[in-house]
Amino acid sequence: MNAPFVIKGATIVNPDAMFVADVAISNGIITAVGEALEADLVLDGTGCYLSSGFVDLHTHLREPGKEEAETIESGSRAAALGGYTAVVAMPNTDPAQDNVATVRFVRDQGVKAGLCEVVPSGCITIGRLGKQMVPYARLAEEGVTLFTDDGTGVQDALLMQRALAIAAQLGVTMAQHCEVASMTKGAVMHDGECCSSMGVPGWPSEAEEKMVQRDIGLVRSTGAKMHFLHLSTAGSVSLVRAAKAEGLPITAEVTPHHLALHDELLRSFDPVFKVNPPLRTAEDIEALKAGIADGTIDAVATDHAPHAGHTKEQPLDVAPPGMLGLETALGVLNTATVVSPQQIASLMSWAPARIAELTERHGRSIAVGEPANIAVWDTTSVWTVSRDNLSSKSRNTPYHGMDLRGRVRHTIFNGEIVVRDGKALK
Amino acid sequence: MKHLLSTHDLSVDEIVGILDVADHMAEINTRALPKVPALRGKTIASVFFEDSTRTRLSFETAAKRLSADVMTFMASSSSLNKGESLRDTIETLSAMGIDALVIRHKSSGVPQTITQWTDAAVINAGDGWHQHPTQGLLDAYTVTREFGTKDSLQGRSIAIVGDIKHSRVARSNIDIFRRLGAHVVVVAPPALLPSNVESWGVEVRSTIDDVVGDVDVLYMLRMQLERMDSAIVPSLPEYCATYSLTPERAAQMGKGSLLMHPGPINRGVELIVDPADVPGSCILAQVKNGVSVRMAILFSLLGSGATSVLQQGAES
Predict the structure, then answer these.
(1) Residues B154 and B83 placed together within one structural domain of the fold
(2) What is the domain range of residue A385?
(3) N or C: which end of chain B has fewer CB within 10 A?
């Protein structure tokens, strides 16, 4: 049992209201919300917002298989520092999360680390090879609610249709990495002017939009829930906007880097800016922001993708795609876009908790009796990102040396203070 | 100028300056003893991660005529086969104390990337589809000297024919030709045009017949036969029917117009005519000029800066 404590002076961010109050926490539960609450242990929340802890729909923790890049413990620590109380672990591990044993292993390692809830996703196909379906019902019994072959899209339309039909029966969600592989062979970056003059193979916007379009059709015919991962193009936003207007059960996420960074950064040939889907153009960034503003985009998800140093010290076309994101997500979102505290809480906590079906414990209002999964953060303090000061095992942040506005001060997971004053306590 | 990574790094004045120095070098190359001590004591490593005959030998000849010491690194016989990383390879070579790295690599951007791992001057001898700046400079030298217009290509039209998309030569040459004032036309099948070609500032035509009689320079690119295997052009005969220089087409070339090719030639593919039969062919002049221009580049990067030292060999 943890000692009772109080977070004083923060502005509570709930879906229906924002107000200044102290919050008392004991035994994992919010025990009081009000004025002048006292306890032996007091955390300062003045100048901060206090919301339900963030939920990341898209985290690569690399364990099992690539522990030199990240472990579930190091990734959980990065998550806690970013204000996350739950992260959905992407299934492209080795072995892949296409079986009960691996899913249990990932969840248990998360429990052992004890820094946030690690929620394993499941693959759509065995080994993410796009050929054979995984035992969805068996994995759903294990608590898997989100299935994805992230890192690659499911190319076979018939298989995808059948997987969605099963998902509809089970009530689980299929999450698609939208990329028509035949159009992106060897692709390094967005297929635009910059790519053309740099002489590298391009990743055209159409390769994403064609699969978004296909899957909207499959959702229409199966009625299954579909979540679109890391949308990056203006065309994708338009397609999803129209599909939602039709009432289809579709949700969508965007990453902080697709809101903040554009393809011109690749002119340096620095693989730290290589990511899949690739950084796009200023017009795409504006369209993604408009998607956030009108609710077409439900969630901001990090696609946190650690890579060991030597793997990013290769030629641009050889280096693996992916960038760190957990510790910088709030700052990047708040710096790159104009969003209110309630929008931040919605994009980073409430909506992703609903999409991953974690609302029993995460993404809830701050009120008496609620589970104490809490993030305390501000939108004003300016800090300079240094790849040397991040807690991830890898250093591949594209924001090194950049100033961000907005930072997480405290993170409370299951009633325990895991981050205090920006420092991880374990 | 510390490195030569891309033609975009050079101002027009710098381009013209290098071509002027190349004139001095061309004079040295006509001497009975074509060698000057301008780079004595300098060590130049030619580091080729991708096969090349003419570019590597051209650089090594240029370095030796300036009295530099030359080390040759060939990927096929190197520790790369033992799994050594690019960074370790470059740091190891640099630790031996070299003044310049002449580098070729199949990946675009590698010359730029390695500048962070070495203090030596880095000279791009061709990277992926990206850039081949010394080819661009030697071709600009060849065209301006053939036409006797020295610093300018104003009023000239140059057609580049073939696989533009995958060509580092096209990217370097188009940039330099345009900035010296030429009008550049590209001729290629749709799948071999770069995406966003409209941002390149060139005219696009769809067959060689559209340009062959009109342009001052016909620049034929090498058509890589492996491209014929994928769904890029329907077949080799189909490609040749629209894009190859046949004897009939060569006969339509304007009087005084030039035929150029960066080599190696795929005879029977882009050139069905024997270039020896084309009066305006300067393909061998390109190779000869390549030595002078590369001498000028090495001297500009590593030399004292004073062209008077180039007289030393003549006096000794």
Answers:
(1) no
(2) 5-49+370-424
(3) C
Torsion angle, alpha carbons of A365, A370, A375, A377, to 10: 50
**Residue B270 and residue B152 share a domain:** yes
CB contact under 8 A, B112 and A269: yes
In degrees and rounded to multiples of 5, residue B261 shows phi and psi of -160, 135
- Look at residue A147 in the predicted model and tell me its pLDDT: 98
Whether B132 is a known active-site residue: answer: yes
Cβ A95 vs Cβ A65: under 8 Å: yes
Element (H, E) at B290: helix B283-302
Whether B310 and B173 map to the same domain: the answer is no
A-B Cβ pairs (cutoff 8 Å, strict) = 65
Residue B155 has pLDDT above 70, yes or no: yes
> For position A1, what pLDDT does the model report?
47
Q: A264: burial class by Cβ within 10 Å (0-12, 13-18, 19+)?
A: middle
Q: What is the pLDDT of residues A386-396, one digit of tens each?
A: 999 999 999 99
Which residues of A are identified as catalytic?
A: 303
Q: Are residues B109 and B219 in the same domain?
A: no
Q: Does A202 touch chain B (CB under 8 A)?
A: yes
- Closest chain B residue by Cα to residue A311: B85
For B242, the domain range is 133-286
ipTM of this complex prediction, to 2 decimal places: 0.92
CATH code at B51?
3.40.50.1370
Question: Is B112 in Cβ contact with A268 (below 8 Å)?
Answer: yes
Would an 8 Å CB–CB cutoff place A108 in contact with chain B? Answer: no
Domain contains B187: yes
Task: Judge whether B49 lies within some domain.
Answer: yes
* Pair type for strands A146-147 and A173-176: parallel
Chain A residues with CB under 8 Å of B197 CB are 196
| A173 and A284 both lie in a single domain | yes
Q: Which phi and psi (to 5°) does residue B104 adopt?
A: -125, 140
Do A192 and B194 count as a contact with CB atoms less than 8 A apart? no
Provide the whole-model pTM. Answer: 0.95
3-class DSSP state for residue B160? strand
A34 touches B: beta carbon within 8 Å: no
Same domain, A42 and A133: no
Are B275 and B292 contained in the same domain?
A: no
Question: Residue A192's domain is classified under what CATH number?
Answer: 3.20.20.140
Domain count, chain B: 2
Contacts of A214 (CB under 8 A, 6+ apart): A157, A160
Judge whether B85 lies within some domain. yes
DSSP letter at A346 equals I
Identify the closest residue of chain B to A188 by CA–CA distance: B108
